[in-house]
Amino acid sequence: MDFQSVIAARRDNxxxxxxxLELVAKSAADGTVPDYQLTAWLMAAYLNPLDPExxxxxxxxMADSGERVDLTGIAKPWVDKxxxxxxxxxxxxxxxxxxxxxxxTVVKMSGRGLGITxxxxxxxxxxxxxxxxxxxxxxxxxxxxxxxxxxxxTPNLAPADKTLYALRDATATVSSIPLIVSSILSKKLAxxxxxxxxxxxxxxxxxxxxxxxxxxxxxxxxxxxxxxGLNIRIAISDMNQPxxxxxxxxxxxxxxxxxxxxxxxxxxTLCVELAALTLEASGLQPxxxxxxxxxxxxxxxxxxxxxxxxxxxxxxxxxxxxxxPEVLPLAPVIREVEFDGTDCWVSxxxxxxxxxxxxxxxxxxxxxxxxxDLSVGVEMHVEVGSxxxxxxxxxxxxxxxxxxxxxxxxxIRNSISFDSKPTEFVxxxxxxx
Length: 433
Ligand code: URA
What we know:
This protein has helices spanning about 5-10, 20-30, 35-45, 50-65, 90-100, 120-125, 135-145, 160-170, 175-190, 210-225, 250-260, 265-280, 290-300, 305-315, 350-365, 400-415, and strands at about 80-85, 105-110, 150, 195-200, 230-240, 245, 335-340, 345-350, 375-380, 385-390, 395-400, 415-420, 430. The mean pLDDT is about 95. Helix content is about 45%, strand content about 15%. The chain folds into three domains: about 5-50; about 80-315, Nucleoside phosphorylase/phosphoribosyltransferase catalytic domain (Pyrimidine Nucleoside Phosphorylase, Chain A, domain 2), CATH 3.40.1030; about 330-420, Pyrimidine nucleoside phosphorylase-like, C-terminal domain (Aldehyde Oxidoreductase, domain 3, Alpha-Beta Complex), CATH 3.90.1170. The chain has 16 helices and 13 strands. It is α/β, with parallel strands linked by helices. The protein binds uracil. Uracil binds near residues 84, 111 and 165. Uracil binds near residues 111, 180, 183 and 184.
């Protein structure tokens, strides 16, 4: 089969065969087809989207383009979690230890951040010594020993996605639902878990700005997972304001550690809800309420924090970062901004504006090969619904230079709107399916 005929079939919106889609995945993984042909196919697939059957075939083929982690022999249930990505989304750093403390085995492959949606790999990379290149054998051994293992995208797992995602990113073909679905689920299939919980972010700080688009993606993920034999639960969660207090890699690790030590917040509520959904979906807890209780106990008792310490040490952290948070990178310029108006309420914090401000500080990538500054970012001291008066602390900027801080302060000030009437609290989970 020649690749030109595969491109032509997609261009002409003809149904593709399983073999054709296997060729796309194989060629992306082994480099036997040049990038210009792969991108021609991607653009054709963007314009003529794959149907559900084709999406499932492509997903399985991408999962089989490398190794699949075989977790046979280690304690069940095996679970995985994935987020479509958002501003301040450090959920995995809290959720994984909570789930492991509750008795689940969690194996996860995480990505680097791109644009305004940060990546768990970058965040954990701010912990000195933390290894993010575990092999499938190392993943399995560590998961068997302590119940958690996480790696960055390695050449062995779903290598077709690595190539296709980079090409999509450079050719304006990321935002196609079947391509997003096959990208996400191929990695989940390769990771070996039986149960997967997906957090689909909805709002200006993620890929899906509206509830309609988020629901469309969630339904497509659910349909493809079913066709590929994956037990999946999906939460659609709010991404219109930054998630939690911190946005920026080391700052988010610090916030995650505080949450693991029991600090309550809207972000902690999201972690408990996702844990409850996972515990219920895996069958370890009989229902969501029992899952909530188990997750809340894991946070309150210190069991989740203890599990996180074991996890960080197992992946090579050179010091206990809970005992020595000062080992995390710290920005040289720290500037706090206060409210200077009259009493009112915060009505909106535009997540996308805050995300872009942190990228401009150097905390995110403008291009896939950009080097990021792990120390910079922003801490928001208010959220939507907060009451403010003259002198209330609004946010703190952590920057590399005074001029970078000036720019971030001006942008983040503009991301916050105020109202003379109280604004309703938005629960972090909008829907589950
Ligand atoms: N996250 C992924 O892993 N892949 C996509 O295509 C989009 C978000």
